[in-house]
Amino acid sequence: MTSFLSEPYVALVLLGFLPSEIWRWLGIALGRGLDETSEIIQWVRAVATALVAGVVARIVLFPPGALAGVPLTVRLVAITCGFLAYYFARRSPFAGVLAGEAALIIGTLLFAR
């Protein structure tokens, strides 16, 4: 008989999903009446954007796992394609991610070691 927490999906829900989900719901409850144009919300948005940009830059410049086999030039072209698609598709994150991923896959197929 296995223990309750040894089940990988139960552990994933209890240790991965629920702790972050509590903070999301708390954020929704507390942020419900805030003005989106207030200085604090603009600051929070800027900090969140900077954190995401930092993580993306780290992954592109110091890639983990299989991404390390993709040449730096391909990774930089892919991120540029993603940004341009985002910008020209009226700031659509979906278009940016789709174009960046497509460029990464095509570049990997053509130029990977």
Task: Describe what this molecule looks like in 3D.
It is a single chain. This protein is mainly α. It has 2 domains: 1-33; 36-111, no CATH class. The protein is 73% helix and 0% strand. It contains 4 helices and no strands. The protein has helices spanning 8-31, 39-61, 72-88, 93-111. α3 runs antiparallel to α4 (93-111). The radius of gyration is 19 Å and the shape is flat.
Question: Which parts are unreliable, with pLDDT below 50 for 5 consecutive residues or more?
Answer: none
How much strand? Answer: under 5%
Structural class: mainly alpha
Gap between N and C termini: 46 Å
Report the major sheet.
none
How would you sum up the global shape?
flat
- Strands, count: 0
Order of helices and strands: HHHH
At a glance:
With 113 residues, the protein is mainly α.
How would the blueprint of this fold be written?
Elements: H1 8-31, H2 39-61, H3 72-88, H4 93-111
Helix pairs in contact: 3-4
